[in-house]
Write a structure and sequence with these properties.
Low-confidence stretches: 305-310, 531-577
Shape: globular
Number of helices: 22
Largest sheet: 6 strands, mixed
Helix content: 40-55%
Number of strands: 18
Mean pLDDT: 78
Structural class: alpha/beta
Length: 654
């Protein structure tokens, strides 16, 4: 368990937060939210021991293992992807090395020394088995698959990867390490919809303690059972996911506002009494008593929402032709390589707001480059309509801002002078008044992203192309962006994995997958979690480390799913799952059969483990080698049966 009590932190005259307390115990999953620059990352760094608070204390249980994923990776990884991920399971790989060393010593020792080696081997082997050592490489492959890596990627050098994919390697390594406390800072920033859904399912089943920062409402709602909000230098804790947080926060604010109003009313009455009788000798004692009461009174402070509330008004762009973009039989590749896109036919009309979704590497960015003329199609035709002018926001655009400029200096550079008040415009993106004079070098990543978005969206254009605009933004900034995009009068192409933003803004979706780009009217849920994709194949979390004689335990769904099922009749549940009664019975039989096979394979593992625990086994080196091989095979079989049981069980529950 990890507890933090009364933490405070300041930078110069600026106080980030005071009196922050939290408790991380098994099963507690806390979402930390708050505005950019409020101190979320600073608090995470304190929890993991990378920085110290100005005040307060942090207590960690003896031997507690804490894993941390920062927003940016500082160190360069070496070796292959699989090798790097396996270093996360250091406690297991060290035992594996010890076993190999002891195996080698068995053939070179005899007598009492050999007996001692055999005893050490038996103890090490039991620990290795208990910690899931025989299945660790298979588990690493499952995690990599869930995070979007192809099977043959495992042997690629990490140095070949982009920053986003290296972050996925670091996340996979952290998952395999299986720490007691997991701390994640914006873990979904570099994920696509498929991988985010897999991670969401994995963390929803996380049995350890979890503290994470995220701007994704769906992600928070699916995982968190508590929300911790940093605001105005203080902290408030709410029980439940994001939906419960919104309701509870409004109720809490209403109570505080009512108490403050009541207090203000009483204070006004006292002040009126003091003012009326201040100079009346007969009331002097009462007046002094009331003055002292006012001096001792601790005023009730109503939290002021310093979140961004401005509604951005777009300048009216020129009118484009009805057809903004048309692609006919387009093929796109880099050099002579296999085409990334092949046979793409699309028509995007004026005023449509279209989201591009699909796995990373499937071709979303390539499609955008082809549309914008940044990459020439190797076949087919790309036509841009008449009077179409474009503004584009790229993922790394915020990093290109000059750190020595102020927000105001960077914002006004390149903008058209058309009589608008640019200071007011800058304030709409969260830099009102003196905030516009802050140096970019002193801003958080989210503030820089917001400024870069403001520059992109300020000029009147009729085609706006945004590539992952919500990365590093806080929830309030995401709200401003959402409002701005809803109000935008032109045509929008939006590349994002933020499902809430897609549902709120888009009126159509282009699904980019397997070299194709498929148009969907509206925003179908099956596109955000497509059947047969990596999401549906890997939605079940990778199994936790296996214990000897482990009995199957059905996955627990989150509390909302459980409540929904309670509220459904059997007929309704069957209908919602899309299965007939006969199909459900057949699937139930398959689940039972898979469970029986798993139990039998676990019994086989336990039997072989008992034989390996017998000192007499090690008197015959050939027998020992044979049993170790059989044990490995039995463990693999047990893992396969467990995977099948989990997959079928999840299918039946859905």
């Amino acid at each position: 368990m990890l507890t933090a009590s009364s933490l405070s932190k300041s930078f110069g005259a600026r106080t980030l937060f005071t009196d922050v307390s939290l408790q991380l115990s098994p099963g507690r999953r806390i979402a930390l939210i708050g505005g950019n620059g409020m101190g979320k990352t600073t608090l995470l760094e304190m929890v993991v021991g990378e920085s110290n608070p100005d005040g307060g204390e942090i207590h960690r249980s003896k031997g507690l293992r804490v894993g941390y994923l920062p927003q940016e990776i500082a160190t360069e990884a070496k070796g292959t992807i699989l090798e790097e991920v396996l270093t996360g399971a250091e406690h297991i790989t060290e035992l594996a090395d010890q076993l190999h060393e002891l195996e080698a010593r068995l053939s070179t020792t005899e007598g009492d020394e050999q007996a001692e080696v055999i005893e050490q081997y038996g103890e090490a082997q039991a620990r290795f088995e208990q910690q899931g050592g025989y299945a660790i490489e298979a588990q690493a492959h499952r995690v990599l698959d869930g995070l979007g890596f192809a099977p043959d990627d495992a042997n690629r050098p990490v140095t070949d990867l982009s920053g986003g994919w290296r972050m996925r390697v670091a996340l996979a390594k952290l998952i395999l390490a299986d720490p007691d406390v997991l701390v994640l800072d914006e873990p979904t920033n570099h994920l696509d919809i498929d991988s985010e859904a897999w991670l969401e399912a994995y963390l929803a089943e996380w049995s350890g303690a979890l503290l994470f920062v995220s701007h994704d409402r769906d992600f928070i709602d699916a995982i968190a059972n508590r929300v911790l909000e940093l605001s105005n230098g203080g902290v408030a804790e709410y029980v439940g996911g994001f939906a419960e947080f919104i309701v509870e926060r409004e109720e809490r604010l209403a109570i505080i506002e009512a108490a403050a109003a009541n207090q203000a009313k009483k204070v006004a009455q006292v002040e009126k009494f003091v003012e009326r009788f201040r100079y009346k000798a007969t009331k002097a004692r009462q007046v002094q008593s009331r003055i002292k009461t006012l001096e001792k009174l601790e005023a009730i402070e109503v939290p002021t929402a310093k979140e961004l509330k401005a509604k951005f008004q777009f300048p009216e762009p020129q009118r484009s032709s009805r057809i903004v973009v048309q692609l006919e039989g387009v093929k796109a590749a880099y050099g002579d390589d296999t085409p990334i896109l092949d046979g793409v036919d699309l028509v995007i009309e004026r005023g449509r707001k279209v989201a591009l979704v699909g796995p990373n590497g499937a071709g979303k960015t390539t499609l955008v480059k082809v549309i914008l003329g940044q990459l020439e199609a190797s076949a087919g035709a790309v036509t841009i309509g008449a009077n179409v002018d474009v503004a584009q926001f790229a993922q790394l655009q915020a990093d290109e801002l000059n750190p020595d400029q102020t927000a105001w200096e960077a914002f006004r550079m390149g903008l058209r002078e058309d009589g608008r008040n640019l200071r007011t415009l800058l304030g709409s993106f969260g830099f009102p008044g003196d905030a516009g004079d802050r140096l970019i070098g002193n801003m958080s990543g989210g503030e820089r992203t917001r400024l870069a978005l403001g520059k992109t969206m300020a000029d009147p254009v009729n085609l706006l192309v945004l590539d992952e605009p919500t990365n590093h933004l806080d929830l309030a900034s995401c709200d401003v962006l959402e409002d701005a995009l809803i109000a935008y009068p032109g045509t929008l192409l939006l590349v994002t994995h933020d499902r809430h933003l897609i549902r709120s803004v888009a009126d159509a979706v282009i699904e980019v997958r397997n070299g194709r780009a498929i148009w969907h009217e509206g925003v179908p849920d099956r596109v955000l979690a497509p059947e047969g994709s990596m999401t549906s194949r890997s939605a079940e979390p990778a199994p936790a480390k296996q214990q000897p004689k482990q009995q199957p335990q059905k996955n627990q769904q989150n509390k909302k799913t459980q409540q929904n099922k309670k509220n459904q009749s059997p007929a309704t549940a069957s209908k919602s799952a899309g299965l007939s009664n006969n199909e459900r019975r057949e699937l139930s039989k398959r689940v039972s059969a898979a469970e029986r096979k798993w139990e039998k394979s676990e019994e086989k593992v336990a039997e072989l483990q008992n034989r390996l625990a017998d000192p007499a086994t090690y008197e015959d080196p050939e027998l020992m080698t044979k049993l170790v091989a059989e044990h490995d095979a039995a463990k693999d079989a047990a893992a396969e049966h467990m995977d099948l049981w989990e997959k079928l069980s999840n299918q039946l529950e859905r």
